[in-house]
């Protein structure tokens, strides 16, 4: 199985989690907003084949140009971007590292949001996270700003659950910690349980950050 490196783990600025997936075809999930990310990538892999965007909020793309300038990588995104090579569509299959992943369209937090679902891993962007400042053990991206929709996010979480293989046991979210579940251990929450909990909390339709 290919390795996943959280290249923005030591960031001192607000950024998403950007994940470098090594293997025969090294790719990056989101670019993040941490200056110097390009050097971290360069220290881990000799080349970068592609960058896949979960969505185009600033904390996910601020360092994109510097990364594309350094590496001859193809850019994949759901919505238009000036440097885009290919468009992501719902149900597409893409290769991340050495494994196939299904593209699942998951709007709500952003209108162009997608998640990448593999047999053992999910790169969920901001549609669902393990922990953040609002909830632990299952949370979701905020939906109270212009262009966002709680109803669409709820539908997206339901769609993600419908297309989630039973074998998935790792959740790589755009913010917070990586979550490692265990499908065969009833004492540990599965990734499915984490997403179900996020859905339940989203369905309450209360503001995620009521004091903002």
Automatic annotation (TrEMBL):
Residues 15-175 form the Metallo-beta-lactamase domain. Its cofactor is Zn(2+). Keywords: Hydrolase, Metal-binding, Zinc. The keyword Zinc applies. InterPro entries: MBL_Glyoxalase_II (IPR051453), Metallo-B-lactamas (IPR001279), RibonucZ/Hydroxyglut_hydro (IPR036866). Pfam families: Lactamase_B. The keyword Zinc applies. One of its GO terms (molecular function) is hydrolase activity. PANTHER family: HYDROXYACYLGLUTATHIONE HYDROLASE GLOC (PTHR46233). This is Beta-lactamase domain protein. It comes from Haloquadratum walsbyi (strain DSM 16790 / HBSQ001). The lineage of its organism: Archaea, Methanobacteriati, Methanobacteriota, Stenosarchaea group, Halobacteria.
């Amino acid at each position: 199985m290919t390795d996943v490196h959280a290249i923005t783990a030591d960031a001192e600025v607000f950024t998403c989690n950007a994940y470098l997936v090594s293997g025969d075809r090294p790719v990056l999930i989101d670019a993040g907003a941490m200056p110097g990310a390009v050097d971290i990538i360069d220290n881990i892999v000799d080349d970068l084949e592609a960058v896949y965007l979960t969505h185009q909020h600033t904390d996910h793309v601020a360092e994109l140009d510097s990364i594309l300038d350094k590496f001859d990588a193809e850019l994949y995104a759901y919505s238009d971007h000036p440097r885009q090579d290919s468009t992501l569509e719902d149900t597409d299959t893409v290769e991340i590292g050495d494994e196939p992943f299904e593209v699942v369209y998951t709007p709500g937090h952003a209108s162009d949001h997608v998640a990448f679902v593999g047999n053992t891993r999910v790169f969920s962007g901001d549609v669902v996270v393990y922990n953040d400042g609002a909830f632990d053990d299952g949370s979701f991206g905020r939906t109270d700003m212009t262009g966002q929709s709680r109803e669409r996010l709820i539908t997206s979480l339901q769609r993600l659950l419908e297309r989630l293989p039973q074998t998935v046991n790792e959740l790589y979210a755009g913010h917070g910690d990586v979550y490692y579940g265990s499908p065969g251990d009833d004492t540990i929450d599965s990734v499915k349980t984490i997403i179900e909990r996020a859905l339940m909390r989203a369905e309450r339709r209360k503001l995620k950050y009521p004091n903002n």
